[in-house]
Amino acid sequence: MINGIIKLFYSEIVKTKMKGMPSNDYRLRDECKEIRNITLKIDSLFFKCIKLMFAIILLILAFNINLVFGIGMCFIEIVYLIYKIKLERQIKESIENVKNNIELPKINIDSQKSRAGINVLITLLLIGLITGFNIAIILSFMVVFVFTINDIYSNIK
Predict the structure, then answer these.
(1) Which of 48, 104, 118, 147 yields a CA-CA distance of 20 to 30 A from 141?
(2) How many CB atoms within 10 Å of residue 70?
């Protein structure tokens, strides 16, 4: 009984104190958000630079191994970059749809087909490296490359 009275008294005091507090956002909180946004941008830029350096090193190594291997690796990097840009746009659209309470469309299977196409390109490139890049491997690579690009571009609005 006494605990209930103390709890009620305490909650009423807290409610009155909360009503007396300013309802606008605190300045310190906004400054912390700005600092957090800046650090996230720096981290994002840092990781993008690391990815770019890794891609350039991989491309240089591929050209040092074999000219055809380097060209194929360049094509794969271009397809991967286009795929990531497309995927980022889809994710941003999905987030906007959730924010606006718009009904979500069904999951797009085309991104899975594009990812599988990129994996097949990498596999064909490695098989070509092992077999010495005969004409059949190069033609297969080009056909898969064209269909993968087509799958990726067919979904860009």
Answers:
(1) 48
(2) 17
CA dist 111 and 152 (Å) reads 8
CA 156 centroid distance within chain: 16
Contacts of 152 (CB under 8 A, 6+ apart): 79, 82, 83, 86, 114
How far is 125 from 133, CA to CA, in rounded Å? Answer: 8
Q: Which residues are CB-contacts of 140 (< 8 A; sequence separation ≥ 6)?
A: 124
Contact of 76 with 118, CB cutoff 8 Å: yes
d(CA 75, CA 142): 10
pLDDT tens-digit profile, the chain (157 residues)? 677 777 766 777 767 776 666 666 556 566 667 777 777 778 788 888 898 899 899 899 989 988 888 888 888 888 888 888 888 888 887 777 766 666 555 555 456 777 777 788 888 877 877 777 778 877 888 888 888 777 777 765 5
Which whole-number Å values give the CA distances from 20 to 12, 28, 76, 87, in the listed order? 13, 19, 61, 48
